[in-house]
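If your schedule permits, I should be very grateful for your opinion on a structural question. What I wish to show you is a protein chain and, alongside it, a tokenised description of its three-dimensional fold. Would you kindly read the sequence against the tokens and tell me how you understand this chain to fold? Here, with my thanks, is the record as I have it:

===
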Amino acid sequence: MVEAMLDILHEDADLLVMNKPAGLVCHPTKGDVYSSLISRVRLYLGEGATAHLINRIDRETSGVVMAAKNSAAAGELGKLWEARAVRKEYLAIVHGALEPAEGTIELALGKDEQSEIAIKDCARADGAAARTEYAALRHFQRGGQDFTLVRLAPHTGRKHQLRIHLAAIGHPIVGDKLYGADPSAYLDFVKERLTEAQRAALMLDNQALHAERLDLTWRGEARTFTAPPDAAFQQFLNP
């Protein structure tokens, strides 16, 4: 049963690489033993096994997540992430026709002190430096509206970095409840009072952000791990 709840991309004696579905948290908050990715990993590995998530992505973001099966591997991989020796690439669908087609967003990020939502950050001059490289892959229309499929490569790992950067340049991610056009969507979702009109405006149940690829050199060998976006993401691209 647990195997069916993990989309395993690669496994060896030290590593477990998975395609996390949108809507699943990486670490447990509340709920049963299947309610987080790390809980499922520990169940899969069996009693007494250790597991360490090396990278984490937001609940509503899907994509490649790596776990180490032992402390030694976790330490080695952690050093690679700290040294920024891992290239991460994401796919996102954003509102509007993104122009110019390629570029770099450099906006410092920090707490959004104007928001009642504790976890919300924003672009602010006195924040932590953050840099995102982007390339538009395809412009398309849906229901008379413009959208862009974009590839993103974060050079820093700030909280909500990609979501804030895209929203700050006027192209929020489709389905983003926290940084989208409706400032009340996130709280209404959390309090289970999201209306049908709000759902229709969001267009997707989860934000259209997918961690597509990780590139790293692991124990002298170049490794690449990739995963395709889920059906909802792909159907939005091809209605």
Notes: The longest helix spans residues 71-82. The CA atoms of residues 115 and 121 lie 9 Å apart.
